[in-house]
Design goal:
Radius of gyration: 14 Å
Shape: globular
Helix content: 10-25%
Distance between the termini: 12 Å
Order of helices and strands: EEEHEHHEHEEEEEEEE
């Protein structure tokens, strides 16, 4: 199993940076950063074939984690987007409008070979509730 950071606030020379985060764990994309253009440039530089993405997991539906999602869904209609039940109805509707398939996650749900999600966790952002989830990757040394 291999994890590659695709998008972050800091980037190596020659790569694009921006608000948010995105990483690829095997063929599962976790978050999509602030903007598709930078995400796609970084994927191309890392020789990542976007058509090989099997699913997208969104940690939380803030702009800096979903910004690249809409262009990706334009390229890959029918792509599954895993999110929390507590994500906004606007987000779920927009996934469908872009021909994605939104699926609500459950705790410990298997997403890809050896890749699980926590399911929705109760978190806060600026004093307001924010549904959030994380990936779980079992390793010989424990859970990563």
């Amino acid at each position: 199993m291999q994890a590659k950071i695709l998008y972050d606030n800091v980037a190596l020379p020659g790569f694009c940076s921006g608000w948010g985060f995105s990483c690829m764990v095997d063929n599962i994309l976790f978050d999509t950063g602030e903007q598709a253009k930078a995400l796609f440039v970084n994927m191309d530089k890392m020789n990542i074939d976007r058509s090989a993405i099997e699913a997208v997991v969104i940690s939380h539906n803030h702009w800096d984690h979903i910004g690249g999602l809409w262009e990706l869904l334009k390229e890959q209609p029918g792509l599954t987007v895993y999110g929390c039940a507590g994500f906004s109805d606007d987000f779920k509707t927009k996934v469908a409008e872009y021909n994605g398939v939104f699926k609500e996650t459950q705790p410990g749900q298997l997403i890809g070979k050896g890749i699980y999600v926590t399911g929705e966790m109760s978190c806060e952002y600026k004093g307001l509730p924010m549904p959030e989830q994380a990936l779980i990757i079992p390793a010989d040394s424990g859970i990563t």
